[in-house]
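Form 7-S
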Amino acid sequence: MVGLLEIPTVLNPSVSVFSGRRGARIVCDAASQVSLAHEVVTKRSFGKLKVQRIRDLVKESHRKKKLDNELEDDQQKAESTVSRVPSEESNLLDEQSYISTGGIKGDTSKASSSNFQSARRDVSSSKVLMTSSKGWHNVEAANIYRSKVYGISKKEQNLKPSNEFFSRMSFKELGYSENIIESLKNLQYVRPSHIQAMAFTPVMGGKSCIVADQSGSGKTLAYLIPLVQRLRQEELEGSGKQASQNPRVIILVPTAELASQVLNNCRSLSKAGVRFRSMVATGGFRQKTQLEGLRQELDVLIATPGRFLFLVKEGFLQLTNLRSVVLDEVDILYNDEDFELALQSLVNSAPVTSQYLFVTATLPVEIYNKLVEVFPDCQVVMGPGMHRTSPGLEEILMDCSGDDKMERNPDTAFQNKKNVLLQIVEQSPVTKTIIFCNKIETCRKVENALKRFDRKEICMKILPFHSALEQESRLGNIKEFRSSPSVNISMFLVCTDRASRGIDFAGVDHVVLFDFPRDPSEYVRRVGRTARGAGGKGKAFVFAVGKQVSLARRIIERNMKGHPLHDVPSAYELMK
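Output:
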């Protein structure tokens, strides 16, 4: 167990370090927002799934993993070491474990002086947020702090497994057609990711599946390529063809921004040589244009649940030609008030032979149970990174609770978090940063704080992204954020969780969790906006207040050790 040592002080802002395999994790004190902690803990409770049920469902995925031989023997041993979580650690958000005990058992009095000296060495050698003459001493409301030093043993530092991003099998070995392989080569894809390798055979075979893996693992192409290849194969066999107002594949997504992203993937494949026609139907665009598109022959329709229901109800969309349904970010879709009606409409109107694919980066137990209740024969295709953060991610915990004598309310909490944010901006300038807030009101306050920090917009570009903006503005800001900025300009996307729902941003250096996420799934999605793909690197600054601090510390420690954030086992863990 991790050794901890507390050293009270009344001097300057403190620096406390989680020294783990993926680098230093620094804690900097600011102010308090204690009332949110209980909400975070009680918002959701994640139970355990029955192991035997999962064993049956993942057996086929494990067989693919055996053939693929993705991991070296020593990596498998490392995962075996960390995958058996003690029973007292099994429920991440158990209130008794995190709130009443105030954190990790034995986290204060039993730390050795060697741990303290090791942590001090880590502080002095860290290149993250090094103290300077313009450092914490000049930050408002940051004069009195408590100092805490956390040490983690060398043995624990090496527990995090470092899975390779790519499968050992080639596209050709998996059964990709020559045309698609050539097209992927044109797009600079030379080898499939793990989830792309694991999902190809069952998706190509028409089986209904849960396709799950961490953010940035390549899930969109994992389902899109075998679906399109099957469409082309059916055309050659004479068993399928395009028709107007009658798509063969429907992809439901939670937001218009994600729909636009999926459409871009489709168009990239088409331009690279994979022939098929796709279109988007969402709110916020001219309805006339979308209806005109539906009247043409169509392969793939990408839609949000509300617009899909409208098209079916008004007779603009038929489902008799439907082969496959993809529910992308299915755990988020269940929060959409129109989704369950849309799903029921699909089940009632589509051919009984239609394939259903449930795609997700997080799979909470209640969502899993809903899916297998309606689709009991659904196959689970679960990648090795499921519910884990990227190996290239460095998580940095910022304790923003402030001193015990300081008045604690939402205003002082925001002020202290704002000061910490500006300190990061000043001392660690990077090209692209995403800042997550829980509310639109907080987004606007953060935007204003950043704009005041650089009034003439000499070195910063602030781009808001939330539902209070017009859809055209949101899409425009995303497009600008994805572009390459001018030299010496730092871009900040200030957003709600809308930006964490499957949207792929390349080259994001930092993610800031200004407000602590409401549940574990949201934590995984937010930090997953950086360190994406093969060899991706990035930092996530996690702001926490009050009792959120011990919860955040526990989450980061689990991530360091490679434990999944939920108790949904992966195929890799169960079948050892």
